[in-house]
Amino acid sequence: LFVPTDLQQDAPVALDEAQSKYLFKVMRLNVGDPVRVFNGRHGEWKASVKEILGKTAGMLQVDEQTRRQGVLTDLHLYFAPLKKTRTDFVVEKATELGVEVIQPVITEYTQAERVRTDRLERLTMEAAEQTERLNMPRVQEPLSLIKLMSSLTDHRHVYYCDERGDDEGAAWGGDDNRARPMADVLMGKPPHSAAILIGPEGGFSPQERSMLRKMENVIPVSLGPRILRAETAAVSALTLYQALCGD
Ligand code: SAM
């Protein structure tokens, strides 16, 4: 259970209504039952139910630390927001796949420009609980592609998922302009600061593609010959990165 409070031995933790409902109504816990808690900063602790005040409030008591806060792979996801449920899916899977920063990016063809970061933060909390990671990714406010790319420092490699190549005509006509397969690019690379960049439903515009291709720390990569839905591309690229370079 995520509890946004300091965690230390013998500390009491007050439960809010949603947490109490979950523990006492859904999970049917009783006084003395164990609960694992984390706050995103101090690792994981074993706690136990101290008091049940009806079904909408209660207290835990922190017992002992069970896991220390580890250092995670420094992996960011930059993605153009999609329609609501598709964005939710991307955020949930990115959390499961160990992303540290989720950055919505507004591109020329982005259709869903409104992003409720507070909702997305709640989703990351639920996904972190289910996947047993001890922190949540930071969900940033949306940025335009140009602003984002100009704010990046040299040390981060941006894997730009590119299904076409830098020139639409040439790419459609043959394989010359195709990006290298992501697995080949990553093979043998140690963990490093990285970001994965995924475009919107309509892909990146020709201008954006040629701008990205000219940037030094941007590495175009292919996820295969088929055009994947944006959320499939995000999950595939994150999985590949974690399998080949993750800690
Ligand atoms: N129209 C579909 C949709 O609504 O999801 C396809 C969108 S696809 C153009 C969106 C993004 O997924 C692209 O900009 C690219 O970043 C990534 N992508 C899809 N297929 C890919 C592939 N085979 N290789 C690399 N990136 C890919």
What report would you give on this structure?
By secondary structure, the chain is an alpha/beta fold. 33% of the residues lie in helices and 25% in strands. The protein is built from eight helices and twelve strands. The chain has helices at residues 17-26, 84-96, 117-131, 145-151, 168-173, 182-186, 206-214, 230-245; strands spanning 12-15, 34-38, 44-53, 57-67, 75-79, 101-106, 138-139, 143-144, 157-161, 180-181, 194-198, 218-222. The strands form two sheets. Strands 5, 6, 7, 8, 9, 10, 11 and 12 form an eight-stranded parallel sheet that branches. Strands 1-4-3-2 form a four-stranded antiparallel sheet, with helices on one face. Helix 2 (84-96) links the parallel strand 5 and strand 6. The two termini are 24 Å apart. The model is unreliable at 169-173 (pLDDT under 50). The structure holds S-adenosylmethionine.
Features:
247 residues, alpha/beta, 8-stranded parallel β-sheet, 4-stranded antiparallel β-sheet, 12 strands, 33% helix, 25% strand, binds S-adenosylmethionine
User: Element order, helices and strands?
Assistant: EHEEEEHEHEEHEHEHEHEH
**Share in β-strands:** 25-35%
Distance between the ends: 24 Å
Task: Please give the largest β-sheet.
Answer: 8 strands, parallel
Q: Helix/strand/pairing class, anyone?
A: alpha/beta
Q: What is the helix fraction of residues, given as a range?
A: 25-40%
Name the overall outline: elongated
- Assembly context of the chains: single chain
